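agent: user wants the structure for Prepilin type IV endopeptidase peptidase domain-containing protein from Methylobacterium isbiliense. delegating to structure tool.
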Amino acid sequence: MASIALLVVFPFLMAYAAASDLLTMTIPNRLSLALVAAFPVAALALGLGWAEAGSHVAAGALTLLITFAMFSFGWIGGGDAKLAAATALWLGFEVLADYVLLASLAGGLLTLLIVYARTYPLPGFALGWPFAQRLLDRRTGIPYGIALAAAALVVCPMAPLWRAALPA
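agent: tool returned. relaying tokens verbatim.
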């Protein structure tokens, strides 16, 4: 059961976050809440001790504190802050630095690509796509949830929770 949560639910929610941010420029609160609600189920099923579970909660709380400071300065969106914190809850401190580094690199690359794409007019075949118009509008932000989700999917197999669920 816990293996299914780790191998299906977490990646599905990450993919959903990326797609939602790309298509609507929002990451629904219910998605971050689903990640937070599913974590204790997976932690209990995998037999995580109180200390290790507490460490995961601390990683999520620290990430929330830092990302909400970034949100208050207008550097990232609120949905990005909540998604990063909920993801840190699942990953824990052991791979948190890897996650942050990868998300930063992916986010920087994504930003460069979108800023570059915004220098060109939208192709005729895409004029009827509201998400494409929104994405290439210079007044909108960058769907950073894509970078956060991609980094999470790359790093998660190295996280303690996954190592506990998957045979060596």
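agent: one observation worth passing along. The two ends are 18 Å apart (CA to CA).
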